[in-house]
């Protein structure tokens, strides 16, 4: 059983930056592909970014490419999401998720993830 805890969400002005963290415990962290998802009020959960087990390959939603960067530190059992040039439409609850690296389903599929954190609120507003 893997436990995931997100942190770093807060209110930020448009154009600002924010760094989210996801701390993992209870399993072999480097066994898992890790993803970030977000859900805005009244909308479906959507894939934001994902990183493979060796931190060598990342995937991004088109809406965040060039603005967000995902990374992980296996020694610290942690994953990060650096967000820049934030927009009001980035406002959402951001959650991290984990799935075994052997799963070949597209990383954008939320149903392919085994473990989820509780989420952290990011609000982009002036």
Polypeptide structure, described:
The chain is an all-beta fold and 126 residues long. 0% of the residues lie in helices and 48% in strands. It contains no helices and eleven strands. The strands form two sheets. Strands 2, 4, 5, 6, 9, 10 and 11 form a seven-stranded mixed sheet that branches. Strand 5 and strand 6 form a beta hairpin. The chain is globular.
Report the helical percentage: under 10%
Task: Please tally the β strands and state the result.
Answer: 11
Number of helices: 0
Please tell me what the overall shape is. Answer: globular
Low-pLDDT runs: none
What is the succession of H and E elements?
EEEEEEEEEEE
Mean pLDDT: 96
Q: Please identify the structural class as seen in this structure.
A: mainly beta
First-to-last CA distance: 40 Å
What's the story with the biggest beta sheet? Answer: 7 strands, mixed
Strand content: over 45%
What's the Cα radius of gyration? Answer: 13 Å
């Amino acid at each position: 059983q893997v436990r995931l805890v997100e942190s770093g969400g807060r209110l930020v002005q448009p154009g600002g930056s924010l760094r989210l963290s996801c701390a993992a415990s209870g399993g072999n962290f480097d066994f898992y592909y890790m993803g970030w998802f977000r859900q805005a009020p009244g909308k479906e959960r959507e894939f934001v970014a994902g990183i493979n087990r060796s931190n060598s390959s990342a995937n991004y939603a088109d809406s965040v490419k060039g603005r967000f960067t995902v990374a992980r530190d296996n020694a610290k059992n942690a994953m990060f999401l650096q967000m820049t040039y934030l927009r009001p439409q980035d406002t959402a609850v951001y959650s991290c998720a984990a799935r075994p690296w052997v799963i070949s389903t597209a990383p954008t599929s939320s149903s392919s993830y085994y473990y989820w954190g509780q989420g952290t609120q990011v609000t982009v507003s002036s």
